Structures are given as C-alpha cells and as structure tokens.
Amino acid sequence: MTTHNNLINGSWTPGKTTSPNTNPSDLSDVIGQYAQGDASDVDAAVAAATAAFPAWSVSGIQARHDALDKIGHEILARKEELGDLLAREEGKTRPEAIGEVARAGQIFKFFAGECLRLAGESLPSVRPGIGVEITREPIGVVGLITPWNFPIAIPAWKIAPALAFGNCVVIKPADLVPGSAWALADIIHRSGIPAGVFNLVMGRGRIIGDALVQHPGVAAISFTGSVGVGRGIAEACVKSGKKVQLEMGGKNPQVVLDDADLAQAVELSAQSCFYSTGQRCTASSRLIVTDKIYPAFVQALQERMAKIKVGDARAAGTDIGPVVSQAQLEQNLSYVEIAKAEGAVLAAGGSRIACHTGSGKEGFFMQPALLVDSTPQMRINREEVFGPVASVIRVQDYEEALAVANDTAFGLSAGIATTSLKYASHFKRHAQAGMVMVNLPTAGVDYHVPFGGRKGSSYGPREQGRYAQEFYTTVKTAYTLA
Fold first, then answer.
1. Are the beta carbons of 331 and 369 closer than 8 angstroms?
2. Which of 150, 88, 85 shows the shortest CA–CA distance to 313?
3. Quick one: 99 and 20 in the same domain?
4. Has residue 452 been placed in a domain?
5. For a Cys staple, 15 with which of 35, 56, 455, 478, CB 3.0–4.6 Å?
6. Which domain range does residue 365 map to?
C-alpha cells in the first residue's frame, strides 16, 4: 500500500509512524497510509519556512502569480480525479466533491490575480514637505490548521492568500482526511515555488497542531474547527503575541415565513440541512417556521426527505453520502436521543443504515433526521451537532422568528424564506450573522467574497476574497522628507 509522506523543505519526509485513510462509504477500503509527524517535524518545517521567507517575501509578483495560476490550472484540469479522491475519503457525494475541487482551483487563480493587485496609499502629511506611504507586507511563517469537512477547499483558501502575499506556510490538515491535502501539496510542490515556502506536516491535532501554535517561529495561526479547540488556540496565541484567525462552530437559523413560496422554502431547507450530510459549518440546523405555514412546511419537508437517497458517496444517484466517522455518527445519533428526551418529536429519519442499498458494504450511513415541536432552549437548538439533523421551532410571526434566530451563541450564517421585501431587508440588517441568505440555502458561498461570522463562530479578520489581506499582511506607514 502506498505511503504518503510529509513535505518539509521541498522533500518528501517520512513520519515517525503512519495511519490508514479509510473510506467511510466502505470500511474495507483503505485509501493509503499517511505519515504521522511529531513536534520535531514541525520544528524542521518551521525552520525551512523561516529560511525561505526573506527571499520569498520580496519575490517578484509575476513569479508568484505564475506559480499560483499553475496550481489552479492543474487542480481544475484534474477536478474529476481529485473529486473522486475527496468523495472516497470524506464521504461527500462525487458531484459535490468535484465542485469543491473546482472551487479550490478557482481560489488559487483568484489569488494569482491578487499578486498583481497589491495596492497601497500615498498621502500628504499634515506637515508641509513630507510624504506618507501606506503599504502591506507579509507577516512571516503562517501555521494553518484545517478541518475534515472541506478537505481541499479550506486548505486552498488559507494557502493561496498566504503565498500570494509573500508568507511561508506550514499546514496541518485534518487527520481524518489527509489524502486531498496531500494531493494539493504535491501540486504545489511541482509548481516552481522554492523549497521551504510551503510545508505539509500530517498527524494528530494534539501533537502537530499544538506544536505549531506554541512554536516561537510561527507568526500567525489560521484555524478552522471546533469551538473548544479554537478558544484554546486563541488563548495561546494571545499569550505569545501571534496573530490569530478562527472559524469555528455554527447553529445557523433558517427562517420560513407564512408568505414564503412553500416549494422553494422546502427545497432550500433540505439543501441547507441535509446535503453534504449536514457536515458544513454553514448548514442550517434550526428551522424557524411561522405559525400558518408550519403544518404544510413540515409535511412537505417530510415528503422531500423521503426522496433523499443515502448511499456510497461515489455512486451515481446518491444524494447524501456517509457520516465521516464512527465518532461523528455516534454524536449525531446521541443528539437525536437527547432531543427526544427533552420533548421534541422525531418526524423523519434519525437512525443508522447498516449498509447502502445493493452493495453489502458497511459504512457510516445515517438517515437524515427531522425533529419537530422543539423549543429554543432545548440542547438540539443550542449546541452544534454537525450532522444531517434538523429541528423545527414554531413561532407566531416575523418578530419572534428574528428573536429566536438571534438567540444563539453563534453567528455564522442565517437564512430567510419570504416574498416580502420589507422582511427580507429587515432580516439582512438585523440578523446577527456574518452571512445572510434570502431565498437561498445557507450553505452556498462564493470564493471571491469574504467568509466569516460573529459571536462564537469567528474571531479575527475574514477569510477569502480581498479581505484575506487583513490577516495575511501587516500594514506599514512610511514618512519621507521631500
């Protein structure tokens, strides 16, 4: 079986041990063995990045553009192959996986362009005869820690701006899904970027992630993952003076008003709640439905859920693949039981499926769950599940719907289904979320605009688009006597 090593200082370097990468659609299918590094590998990668930084940070913008454009071009050319790998290791359906790979390629191409659009300001001083220049410079060695639910897109949207703005990178991908990150690292390695500028260290978060966060040679940490881990990283970075960017949890609301188009509201809710197996930080898990449309909405959503085909992520016709792991599956099922114990009613799904139809192969399959008659204070409506589990909260009117939508410790994404311009406009302004969707699924976002939330969902500058420069650069003000 092929062993995939870490990439340190331009060389493929064995880890201290290896770990199997297993297909959640077929537990008998081992994709490959992937290196498991330790703190000494982090030390070596940071040393390589530190040595490469002086030259890379002042390298020509055309060379940076060409390298990032080449990376994006190869990703797009191989999107079906890489999408198949992504679906195989993470459990996202093959069409969704191919779409994610395409997004990664588009991200690199966008930031290739940003290399050529670096801008500053030239201002007169309030003192006569003095000029002022405001410019942006790279911050140094950046540690990137990425999650398992978007195993190529999230690494791409962190790596691409880091490199575009002249930083050097050490990335630790999620231990559950190293294959897509390794394939991306291989493409970057062959792009012409100098040795040491980009480094990949795979392994356990408590080993590699902790070593990155604590390393004195790392200037900044960008992390996407759980709230608990993110808060610990923030505390450590503040103590050591590192710049930090966090994308964490969500408990995203989808409001459905009485005047909504019922078919549209049901479809966007199904897409938001259950597709990608609900394993998206932007997924809607709280359906907040006003009184008059509530019975029809619940019935129509039950009927829509009955048509959802759960199966092998790479099989034609599959709508929803497996849950990513046994631990995640157990967590999902436990929250269904907790909700029922607190008084919610299971209206659809909510059980494990032993194997997908016709194959006989065991995987982590779960029928999407719909819980009705829930209340805002139930745990199912307070805590992130991160699976295909949605709860419905019945409210009287728009004002109560908005209050319930904002009654959460999180603030990543929020949606509303309505034909009222008045309510849509008010919701866009008053929803306490970083991203708001009107008559669209909460889980669809573009690669060229800022991504991020409020409250417990995000901390630090936004990711993606031109706003990425706020994290990956530092501002310098220079004065010149004429």
1. no
2. 88
3. yes
4. no
5. 35
6. 252-438
Provide the domain count of the chain: 2
Q: What does pTM read for this prediction?
A: 0.96
∠ CA 113-119-122, rounded to 5°: 165
CATH number of the CATH domain containing 383? 3.40.309.10
303 and 327 in a single domain? The answer is yes
pLDDT value of residue 356:
52
List, for residues 160-190, the tens digit of each pLDDT value: 999 999 999 999 999 999 999 999 999 999 9
Q: Would you tell me how many other CB atoms lie within 10 Å of the CB of residue 436?
A: 18
**pLDDT tens-digit map of 352-383:** 987 655 566 899 999 999 999 999 999 999 99
Distance CA 90, CA 475 (A): 39
Q: Residues of 19-44 as b/e, b for ≥16 C-beta within 10 angstroms? A: bebbbbbbeeeebbbbbbbbbebbeb
Q: Answer whether residue 199 is part of any domain.
A: yes
Active-site positions read: 247, 281
**What is the CATH classification number for the domain harbouring 133?**
3.40.605.10
Secondary structure letter of residue 209 according to DSSP: I
- Compute how many other C-beta atoms are within 10 angstroms of the C-beta atom of residue 410: 25
Please check whether residue 11 lies inside any domain of the structure: yes
